[in-house]
């Protein structure tokens, strides 16, 4: 090979960038191939469900798909009017329902409208029995016949909500998720006896915050001990901290049930030493207290581990330096050691709080009605009511709330200051 | 020791230390320092020098014996009440505070008012030429600058005693030499008593008034740098300080401050008896490479000469270095200054070497 005498021309601007891009392409491709399985898994198992949840929370096809002619006919009817819709609307309704009954979609519509106002299932069952026999050409007018089927067809509310939910998208689920409802085109608060979600959101937030604080109070000394004793002892202690991880969550929660119930270990002991009267045992389960105790214990390792890994990186020479400069034990800790452990507190607090906000099993088992979290409500809406739209809306609000918190946290503490190890 | 106890500013009196209750890390340490002295504790790692420093600072407790500071026993005084300034190995500047806040810390915990604090901080930073850096954070400074700040922080509350634990270990060679000079100057100008720990013998020799050479939990020799190099008290010190040739043999004759030693291969050499007292004793003699003479004309007429063969010649710029085979050993080193009149030997040359008796010390075997 002979060396060329002319020097290699120096590339500038875009040309150099392209060359660099070409040189790195293979490397990037290979890196992408390595992460591809995880990437695909995340897309299928994480992103798609979230997108589907977002879609479900606003989707409202069922009304317009089941009653297309009725919705068209309703367009000229004013929601604020005190008159029932005119005959053509009723005729369109009969036509639509005849098709829906044949296609077996009428009850789906009833289930959907039931989320807004009760009674639709009965209305629809009656219609299913009578309407298929009616002849659209000869049996009119239909207004009186429909009103005879069920008196609710004569209620203005029925038609108002039908019109309100006639578009393919709706904000109704979100309104319901924050205890509001759409009445005659106006947003109103639901009656107090039905308002539940805001209270549950608030309870979930403050109880998660309290649990987070409790894990910090209990976990900080443990993490400090772990980081400052001999390796051999630290490993043993670490195993004790991790032990709960190797036990099923269900088992741990159930064992709290055993401990805290009326005839449980704690109450028996308190009665035995005479601190509590036998007929006046403490209620420590199926309420907030039980949830806080059980969740604090269950989430404790998630606080201890980030704290420990940060504390392990703090050299003991800092505290020694502080003492040699004249600080007593407390000042050395508070002004020198503690500020350097803050990144660990941040990491632990975020981890515990976010996990607590979405917790389900423990509040379900030891919470009772007063210790219920928002996720229990979401689960209830899902498998008892089948209201997927509301489930989506509640879930989305929960997700957004966590994202907003994360953002605020980043502004205040700075996410760069968070260390998991 | 009682006299020293009365005189010394810092006194270790029969101090012992064990971490596990089985092995003594420090065995019977006796040391007395006058006020204003710069004393270096030098030794290989694990020799007990850092433990001694930590006992003085109050982070370790002596298992036996007493440590006195200015005549008062300090065994039971916690570290924050001892008022001793300390510079740590990796500086231990608080990363979440600015330089000024770092310096302010020891003044705040002493309850000194704001204006006084500011004046003292400014004076301390100016002293180490870091006056312009008060608002920076430690991470924004170079190693050398952090070193200066650590020094300023240890001095800002005007302690009478300052401890330094290998403070220059993390710096590069040039900066280290510069800082050695600055630290000694500062210490002498301020009249501070300084205890300096290092494993770097050059540092110990250039900086200190006296050096305590540690090994195996004991002070092997406590002497000014010159004595240490010229007159090592035992073979450990001779080996540890500077380069050194060692030859094993038996004392043949002793006559006052001169003796002859019969090496194990039968060669007879001149030496000065240090740790030997009578003929027939085993000994290990030590000769500095630069004191070996290959020109017999420069030695006394009756000096014993030794046959040697040049094995290797190493050019080192300012010096020439020769590896020789002497008395059956291949690691004998001879050093010349690089001067016009020096002859260059090459591998394979057979020469005769010798030395003045006072340059060859007959030590413990």
UniProtKB/TrEMBL annotation, chain A:
Cellular component annotations (GO), alphabetically ordered: plasma membrane
GO biological process: transmembrane transport
InterPro entries: MetI-like, MetI-like_sf
TM stretches of this protein: 31-55, 205-227, 234-252, 289-308, 342-361, 382-409
Pfam families per UniProt: BPD_transp_1
Annotated compartments: Cell membrane
PROSITE patterns associated with the record: ABC_TM1
Coiled-coil intervals: none
SUPFAM superfamilies registered for this protein in UniProt: MetI-like (SSF161098)
Membrane protein topology class: Multi-pass membrane protein
UniProt keyword annotations, A-Z: Cell membrane, Membrane, Transmembrane, Transmembrane helix, Transport
Superkingdom: Bacteria
Family: Belongs to the binding-protein-dependent transport system permease family. CysTW subfamily.
Protein name per its UniProtKB record: ABC transporter permease
Organism listed in the record: Pararhodobacter aggregans
């Amino acid at each position: 090979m002979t060396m060329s005498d002319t020097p290699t021309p120096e590339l500038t601007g875009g040309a150099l960038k392209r060359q660099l891009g070409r040189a790195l392409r293979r490397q990037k491709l290979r890196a992408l191939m390595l992460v591809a399985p995880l990437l695909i898994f995340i897309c299928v198992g994480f992103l798609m469900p979230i997108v589907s949840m977002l879609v479900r929370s606003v989707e409202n096809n069922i009304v317009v798909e089941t009653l297309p002619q009725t919705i068209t006919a309703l367009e000229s009817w004013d929601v604020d009017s005190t008159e029932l819709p005119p005959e053509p609307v009723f005729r369109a309704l009969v036509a639509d329902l005849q098709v829906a009954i044949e296609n077996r979609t009428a009850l789906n519509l009833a289930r959907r409208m039931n989320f807004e106002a009760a009674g639709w299932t009965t209305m629809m069952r009656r219609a299913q029995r009578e309407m298929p026999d009616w002849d659209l050409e000869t049996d009119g007018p239909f207004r009186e016949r429909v009103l005879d089927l069920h008196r609710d067809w004569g209620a203005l509310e029925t038609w108002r909500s039908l019109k309100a939910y006639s578009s393919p998208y709706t904000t109704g689920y979100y309104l319901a998720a924050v205890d509001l409802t759409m009445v005659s085109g106006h947003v109103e608060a639901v009656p107090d006896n039905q308002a539940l979600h805001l209270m549950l959101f608030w309870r979930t937030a403050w109880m998660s915050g309290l649990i987070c604080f409790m894990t910090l109070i209990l976990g900080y000394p443990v993490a400090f001990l772990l980081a400052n004793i001999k390796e051999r002892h630290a490993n043993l202690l670490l195993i004790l901290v991790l032990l709960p991880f190797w036990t099923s969550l269900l088992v741990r929660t159930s064992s709290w049930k055993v401990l805290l119930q009326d005839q449980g270990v704690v109450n028996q002991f308190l009665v035995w030493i005479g601190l509590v009267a036998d007929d006046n045992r403490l209620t420590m389960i199926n309420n907030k207290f039980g949830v806080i105790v059980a969740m604090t214990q269950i989430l404790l390792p998630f606080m201890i581990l980030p704290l420990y890994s940060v504390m392990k990186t703090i050299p003991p020479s800092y505290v020694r330096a502080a003492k040699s400069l004249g600080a007593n034990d407390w000042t050395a800790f508070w002004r020198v050691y503690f500020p350097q452990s803050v990144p660990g507190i941040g990491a632990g607090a975020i981890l515990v709080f976010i996990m607590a906000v979405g917790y389900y099993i423990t509040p379900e088992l030891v919470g009772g009605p007063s210790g219920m979290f928002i996720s229990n409500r979401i689960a209830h809406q899902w498998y008892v009511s089948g209201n997927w739209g509301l489930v989506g809306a509640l879930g989305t609000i929960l997700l957004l709330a966590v994202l907003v918190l994360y953002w605020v946290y980043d502004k205040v503490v700075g996410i760069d200051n968070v260390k998991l190890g | 020791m009682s006299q020293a106890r009365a005189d010394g500013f810092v006194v270790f009196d029969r101090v012992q230390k064990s971490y596990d209750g089985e092995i003594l890390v420090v065995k019977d340490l006796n040391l007395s320092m006058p006020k204003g002295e710069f004393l270096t504790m030098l030794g290989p790692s694990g020799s007990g020098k850092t433990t001694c420093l930590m006992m003085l600072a109050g982070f370790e407790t002596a298992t036996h014996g007493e440590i006195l500071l200015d005549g008062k026993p300090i065994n039971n005084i916690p570290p924050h009440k001892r008022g001793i300034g300390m510079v740590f190995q990796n500086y231990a500047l608080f990363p979440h505070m600015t330089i000024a806040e770092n310096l302010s810390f020891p003044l705040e915990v002493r309850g000194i008012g704001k204006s006084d604090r500011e004046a003292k901080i400014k004076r301390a930073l100016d002293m180490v030429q870091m006056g312009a850096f008060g608002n920076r954070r430690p991470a924004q400074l170079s190693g050398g600058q952090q070193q200066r700040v650590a020094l300023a922080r240890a001095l800002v509350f005007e302690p009478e005693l300052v401890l330094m634990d290998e403070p220059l270990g993390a710096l590069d060679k040039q900066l280290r030499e510069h800082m050695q000079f600055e630290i000694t100057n500062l210490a002498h100008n301020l009249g501070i008593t300084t205890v300096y720990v290092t494993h770097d013998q050059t540092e110990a020799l250039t900086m200190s008034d006296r050096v305590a050479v540690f090994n195996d939990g004991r002070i092997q020799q406590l002497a000014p740098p010159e004595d240490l190099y010229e007159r090592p008290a035992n073979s450990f010190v001779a080996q540890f300080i500077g380069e050194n040739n060692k030859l094993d043999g038996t004392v043949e004759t002793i006559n006052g401050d001169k003796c002859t030693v019969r090496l194990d291969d039968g060669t007879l050499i001149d030496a000065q008896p240090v740790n030997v007292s009578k003929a027939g004793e085993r000994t290990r003699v030590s000769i500095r490479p630069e004191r070996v003479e290959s020109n017999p004309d420069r030695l006394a007429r009756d000096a014993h000469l030794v046959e040697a063969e040049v094995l290797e010649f190493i050019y080192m710029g300012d010096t020439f270095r020769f590896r020789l085979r002497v008395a059956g050993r291949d690691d004998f080193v001879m050093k010349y200054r690089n001067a016009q009149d020096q002859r260059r030997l090459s591998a394979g040359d057979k020469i005769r070497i010798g030395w003045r008796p006072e340059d060859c010390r007959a030590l413990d075997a």
